[in-house]
Amino acid sequence: MQALRLVSVVLSTAAIFCCAHSHAQTIDRVDVFRDAAVVTWRTQARPGPCPVARSFHAVMPSDVLVFDEADAPPRGGAQGEEVKWFDTGGEARFEAADKALKSARLELELKRAQLELVEEDLALLRANRKVGGTSESLLVEDLELMADWMHEEAKDRLFRRVELKAEIEDEEKEYNEMREARDAAAPRSVFRWSVDLPAGASGEVWTQVVEWGGQQRWTPADVLSLNSGASPELTWHRRADVLVDLPWGQGEVSMRFHDADYAGLSERPDARPLILDGAVAYGAPRKSYEAAARTDASTWPGVGWTVERGLNPGAMWRKSISLGDVASPVQVRHHAVPAQHAAVNMRLSIPRPSEPVAAAEQALLMVDGRPVGKVWLTERGDSIVMDAGVARDWTVVRAREAALCSKSVLGGKVKHHRAYRITVTNRSAADGDFVLDEPLPVSRTAEIEVIPESLDGGTLDEASGILRWTFALAAGQSRTVQFSYDLSHGKDQVIPGFE
Hints:
By secondary structure, the chain is an alpha+beta fold. It has helices at 90-127, 140-184, 289-294, and strands spanning 2-4, 17-18, 26-32, 37-44, 48-55, 64-68, 78-85, 188-197, 204-211, 217-220, 223-227, 233-244, 254-258, 273-276, 279-282, 304-307, 317-329, 331-336, 345-351, 362-367, 370-380, 383-390, 394-400, 406-410, 413-426, 432-439, 447-449, 459-461, 466-473, 478-490.
């Protein structure tokens, strides 16, 4: 197979209509990148101008690449012709919607005409409220009858005016909705691509079209579901939010999702771009179309997922797609810094899944069926770590033991002795590991003395000045740690964070 050189593109804006079945082009596959979609069309070759593909957004020759099944010289340039396009059944829907809209407009105009007549009647009645004449020519009884008649007529017209205004308001709303429906069913402009084939041409032709624009993309929408029972397990639900805008909708196609930007490609993996006489063209492919574009051995960049069934993309097609689930053992650790915040946070760590997952900064976390919210994903070596928010069934209480605290002054120095008690309680139904941190006051001018025996099993990181305890707590169990330290500083000095 050989790539056909795309030397020129011919565009026209003739008002040609193209229905979904007017040509025998079908989509073979759609490769969706983070910023574009590469659509592979397939059609049966025929001599002369042979339509090979359609596109909403691809208008440049560099965005179209034609493959011929035969190993033959280039066939010439692909020609792009702007036409109007309906999807399957779209023309009938548009005609029906347009007919209904015209009928609704007629009804609306009739109601408006009735309202004008009512307004004219009311104007006449107001103008003739005064009846002229003398007692010799017009009896008192006639005057009374005329007044009653005019009163009833005016009342009827006023009621009818209120009714007509309400009916017109409803019909205007309905008319606007019908107009939106008609406009949504209207044909769209597409580029119909064709290539000139010689006499006797047969077999199949494949055409790759890069659909830029229209915000076509896919973004990770992964959901992490934690089962925090006796043997915690995390299920990684791989999902993709997809938006593509394709002149299709005639049936299921295979879609492959690439965890990379198409715009980041320095060159396409299936053909090498060349410059020929100032026009962009394509030289011989480095790999056959079968190997480079159609099979799972594709050399397109980025981790890929293929969904073979159930997807029927079309115009402005949005969908949340499952890319499969990955179950993984998870290490659950609870962590607290009560000196800063009286809450226990949960931190999860899992081995990096052997199956591919999309590169994403965040994912939605569910804990025992309860949504926690978006969490940040951090890679640390071969693990992925995430902070899962506050653990509601764990508590931590920190208190200063005033009876053990003291203050003394010696010369120009002030010496403090501080003692604290911290109690951690596991109120959940599962055992868990716990990390407790206590940052000591940090100052270049203060001196802190910590006696290891006073730390109740904790350790001091002298570089960061953090005391840390690590222990396990069974379900329903509590543990209290006690620690103390001495701090000395000058009389006039203020130590940040020292209480």
